[in-house]
Design goal:
This protein is of the alpha/beta class. It has 3 domains: 336 residues, Glycosidases (TIM Barrel); 53 residues, Alpha-Beta Complex (Oligo-1,6-glucosidase, domain 2); 74 residues, Immunoglobulin-like. The strands form 3 sheets. The chain has an 8-stranded parallel sheet with strand order 10-9-8-7-3-2-1-11, covered by helices on one side. A 6-stranded antiparallel sheet has the order 12-13-14-17-15-16. The longest helix has 17 residues. It is globular.
């Protein structure tokens, strides 16, 4: 029997920026509940199959929820646990799945576990975190670096030891070598799965396992001091991806597998891009029946037809039966899609994402073509930008609130939004784009409907073919349907010819071209994407 996660479209909601119901300028769980009809089931809905929610647990918000103080409750800024239960019920009534963010590598320094751990060296929870004594000169145990800059070790004077924090000092790393830690985290999985969530997104998975010998990370010979983050000065071969990584993830997968129809998506960035082996290892070594790694190539590959074809072909060829590909072109940590490739190409990218096999994940706001929002120094919220100013690493620009209409506050809030709104929200918002048949939002809605109604797009095979240097074209085929997708990556018109180009245009990203008949030749407009049913 096929499972929902083999073909669903996932919509990532950065909760703080989705919809605010109480006027505090921060999105909340009741806001998601109120907007469920926009996502699925309403007359003007997108038609997605699942939503992934950013962390909503109690947290001091040093990293906006990615430092958890209680894994089994809801922070008051987002609502209550009863609000979450109502959201879950409302989503399930619309046949909409809920995926929650699961932060496994670290907690908040305000979590009761860490408060006990730091109390004394002989506290029963001391080994729930990673503690090490200083070197003879008092310096940190090794050269490991925090992703937010500086040493990954923070000295705790009362107990005379350092604790490890791969991110902020307020985010101490859990010690996954401890069986008690692993047992506690499996209880968290059980809590949410018993409540009815449909999936987990595993945050920062690569950091779970470290080198048991705590050896120094070697220098990165490709580091550019004037360009790169200081974190890239080292190759993180010992501070990440330790030998027990897949063992730890499999323990979580085993817990997930006890529940029917549950799935976990693993956030793991490969050592280098165009590296299908890195993804392949996760499929082979973590139960692929209930898990899959994100494929991030679409975020970092240059917007060139041959580049996208090359990584897609390699990746699809590497997959075995039962493996679920998870494609995504953006998220809350990466620059906005429309800012990276341009507004015109964003239409082509929408067709690409939603016609690839497996489980595509789209980021909230990309359906409107939102671009990065400039953030003045006085409005910076992201701790990464605060720790490393001026490096262009800040994530606030892609986390700007979703504009719902052209009213004050963009229909997002009646108060002051926690981050500045996009400057063009009066024209670029949900209400305005729903009223425009040719808008990007309505293109996404049509694409999602075509995918929902197409056996070939949801479950069919994939095979690319040559048709021109600036064109990415592929055949999606099931027993009862053959669809050809042709994507013009260039800003110039292209005349294409091929034996596969015989049939009816199901959908074009250009205006007024659907339902045309194609007989071997077609002139693509700049950036045009095309679906033809053979």
């Amino acid at each position: 029997m096929r499972q929902w996660y083999q073909s669903a479209v996932v919509y990532q909601i950065y909760l703080r920026s989705f919809y605010d119901t109480n006027g505090d300028g921060v999105g909340d769980l009741p806001g998601v509940l109120k907007k469920l009809d926009y996502l699925r089931g309403g007359p003007n809905s997108l038609g997605v199959d699942a939503i992934w929610l950013s962390p909503f647990y109690p947290s001091p918000m040093a990293d906006f929820g990615y430092e958890v103080a209680d894994y089994c409750d809801v922070d008051p800024v987002f609502g209550t646990l009863d609000d979450f239960k109502r959201l879950l019920d409302g989503a399930h009534r619309r046949e909409l799945k809920i995926i929650i963010d699961f932060v496994l590598n670290h907690t908040s320094d305000q979590h009761p576990w860490f408060k006990e751990s730091r109390a004394s060296r002989d506290n029963p929870k001391r080994d729930w975190y990673v503690w090490r004594s200083p070197k003879a000169d008092g310096s940190p145990p090794n050269n490991w670096q925090s992703a937010f800059g500086g040493s990954a070790w923070a000295y705790h004077k009362p107990t005379g030891q350092y604790y490890l924090h791969s991110f902020l000092a307020q985010q101490p790393d859990l010690n996954w070598e401890s069986p008690k830690v692993r047992a506690a985290m499996k209880q968290v999985v059980k809590f949410w799965c018993d409540l009815g969530v449909d999936g987990l997104r595993i945050d920062a998975a690569s950091w779970l396992a470290k080198d048991p010998a705590f050896r120094d990370d070697p220098p990165n010979p490709h580091y550019r001091s004037q360009v790169d983050s200081p974190y890239r000065a080292l190759r993180h071969t010992h501070s990440k991806r330790g030998p027990q990584l897949y063992t730890y993830l499999n323990e979580i997968a085993d817990e997930v597998s006890k529940y029917t129809g549950r799935f976990m998506i693993i956030e793991t960035y490969p050592h280098r891009w165009n590296n299908t082996e890195a993804y392949d290892q996760f499929y082979k070594q973590v139960n692929p029946q209930v898990s899959a790694p994100f494929n991030f190539e679409g975020v970092f590959a240059p917007w060139l037809a041959h580049s996208f074809r090359a990584f897609t072909d390699r990746f699809q060829t590497s997959l075995q039966d039962g493996y679920v590909p998870v494609y995504t072109f953006g998220n809350h940590d990466q620059s906005r899609l429309a800012s990276r490739i341009g507004p015109e190409a964003a239409r082509t990218a929408a067709m690409l994402l939603l016609t690839l096999p497996g489980l595509p994940v789209m980021y909230c706001g990309d359906e409107l073509g939102l671009q990065n929002v400039p953030i003045a120094p006085g409005n910076v919220q992201d701790p990464l930008e605060k720790h490393l100013p001026g490096k262009g690493l800040g994530r606030d620009p892609q986390r700007s609130p979703l504009p719902w209409d052209d009213s004050r506050g963009a229909g997002f809030t009646s108060g002051k939004p926690w981050l500045p709104l996009t400057a063009d929200y009066a024209e670029r918002n949900v209400k305005t784009q729903l009223a425009d048949p040719q808008s990007l939002l309505n293109l996404y809605r049509r694409l999602l409907k075509v995918r929902r109604d197409s056996h070939a797009l949801k479950y069919g095979s994939y095979q690319s073919f040559d048709i021109g240097p600036d064109i990415f074209a592929y055949l999606r085929e099931s027993q009862d349907q053959k669809l050809v997708v042709v994507l013009n990556f260039s800003d110039k018109p292209q005349i294409v010819q091929h034996r596969h180009l015989h049939g009816t245009v199901v959908l074009s990203t250009a205006v007024g071209k659907s339902d045309q008949q194609v007989e071997g030749e077609y002139q693509l407009e700049p950036h045009e994407g095309l679906i033809i049913e053979l």
